[in-house]
Amino acid sequence: MKAGAPALANAASRQPMLAERAARLHAQVVRGVLAPRARRSLDITLAEFDSGVKDLLAAAVSAEVRENYRMLQLLWQDYRPHVARLPGSDAPEKLSERSEEVVWIAAKGARLLRDPAVDAQTVNVRLAGVARFQSQRIARAHFFTAWIGRSDRREAELETASRDFRRALDTLLATPADGSGAAAELQLAENQSGFLAQAGRDLKTARDPATGLEAVAKTCDNILEVMDRVATLYEAWPA
Fold it and tell me: Of 102, 101, 125, which is closest to residue 113 (Cα–Cα)?
């Protein structure tokens, strides 16, 4: 991991996203939606989380941050075998609960590392991280709804994730750094967000959700790739 506030913000914001993504990809394999591709992506995601939590623990700037990432490492060691095991043997509700605990501690780490007196460069990295995270949370909510069934809690999660994704993307679209290359990437994310919203609407009325879930998986993967590039562009752009 590179030194500096933007790099640290980028790395810290990836961990909750990776935890969400792992849960979604597990559900995607179980549901048989683009399963071989999802299986490969799950292996990569697990390895990235392993590496990321070690790097952040090594870069901890205070005892509080260090303790949080130690806790995350312990929770991950307990959770990882459950999300990696395919076909899944855990009840989906239990897997969802385990996932939420990991996500919460990972997100807490990102909050603890947040310095209120940062520059616009780091703020934009964080916003890209929010959009990246929420894209995977939206996907996870759709897949777990198809797997477990609809509930008020999952509907509320989906609504909140969609709103927070939209807010982060709108903020970035309003103030792209000239010359950074981010504007073109953000327009791609905006285009994909329309496809994602349509896929969500289609899922609500579909008798067979397979086609809609495939659209969600592809679109959220596209958004993730774009927002990864945006975060990297802002990380490298001079403050």
Answer: 125
Q: Residue 154: which residues within 8 A CB-CB, separation 6 or more?
A: 141, 144, 145, 148
Beta strand residue intervals within 53-184, DSSP E: none
pLDDT at 227: 97
For position 87, what pLDDT does the model report? Answer: 78
Number of domains forming the structure of the chain: 1
Written as one letter, the residue type at 224 is: L
pLDDT of residue 235: 87
> Residues 224-233: pLDDT tens digits?
999 999 999 9
Query: What is the three-class DSSP state of 176?
Result: coil
Domain residues for 144? 5-236
Rounded-to-integer distance, Cα 34 and Cα 29, Å: 7
Tokens of 46: 């697990």
Of the candidates 24, 11, 39, 57, the one whose C-alpha atom is nearest the C-alpha of residue 157 is: 24
